[in-house]
Amino acid sequence: MNDMTAHHPSLPIAPVLSRASFSGAPGAAGGARPPSVLDAGQVRMVTSGRVAIALALRQMGVRQGDEVLVPAYHSPSMVPPVLWCGATPVFYRVGPDASVDLADVAARIGPATRAIMVTNYFGFPQQLETIRAFCDARGLQLLEDCAHCFFGEHRGKPVGSWGDYAIASSMKFFPTYEGGALVSARHRLDAVALQPGGLGFEAKAALATLENSFAYGRLPAVRALLRLPMGLKDLAWRALKARRSGASGTGAGAALAPASSDSGFDFEPRWVDKRSAWFSRAVMKLASSRRICTLRRRHYLALEEATRGLPGCRPLFFTLPEGVVPWQFPLLLDDPEFVFARLHAAGVPLVRFAHARWPGVDAGTCANSSMLAQRVIAFPCHQELRPNELAWMAGQLRQVLLAQAVAA
Ligand SMILES: *Cc1c(COP(=O)(O)O)cnc(C)c1O
User: What's the whole-model pTM score?
Assistant: First the structure.
């Protein structure tokens, strides 16, 4: 088992900037650009998905004393925006495949219920037309959470088209340091006025993206070019921070970028009305969406192929339908702790979505959420994985699943 602890360069868990980010899809013909949530309606580019949730709830008029239905299978980052509005989250159940349990939702609707948040997990749309009809029949506003599906279509329409409002998270699909989107196919967003995040924020968004890229061996020529300026940057950084803390009057010195960019679950009201950085928006505009969609689907299918027929596991979703652009490859495991420990030790990046949930949300709230949070391990399939990185990860996965079968 010594091979499990051998040294490997760990792979980027999320997209990192490379020269290829701006090239077209390999081997893909022309044709229509793949649809994204930004095609669903009017758009506001903000600094994170959770900020977009807060703005959506504010636009809905959600306030003190209201209730918002939130899936028990969730990222803890989805809850603070509800509290920020003064509302109470009410958690509803999902099925064993993470589908919305509408019977349970119906049972939890009360006089104070204003809205429901519905997540298209891992990039796979829910039964959105059924959910939309359900909301219309009961006067509920629908917030379509597209944090896992920046791209894709469902029944001929872009994802995000069903909600009164939809939200997306840029960092999960693009090599950017920050970013989120508020979208509405049904309401005007004219009243949502955003302010720039400031010079320090703009600089941080660009430099942090480059540094993350360099950390994974991308853009070596740019790195060489920037060696001296990056050294000077640390000095400039300290000076800037010192000036900010002096000027802010609070003494503490506000951070240059939101905590959401550093993979925390915090929610900072100060970033609610801020526009996404220029650099992030430029990267999103210049990146090839066809390449993102083609490679994510290809990588997903490669991981599915690598695990096919192996004991103790199956993909959470049985097929990858046309029009779905996956966030990650979710695998349902019989012995997740064994697999997690081995792969983690080998340096394979993995995500256990909803492993941490909002305090009080447990198996009593929703047995399926607890089961999924425990048994699903998701693997990156993003467009910036290199062929050798993908092959290495698939090999590690096969090896551990076979070892698990022997150990069982
Ligand atoms: C990541 C995530 C969010 C929040 O997005 P951020 O950009 O991290 O704020 C919302 N919903 C789901 C399901 C997520 O996974």
Answer: 0.93
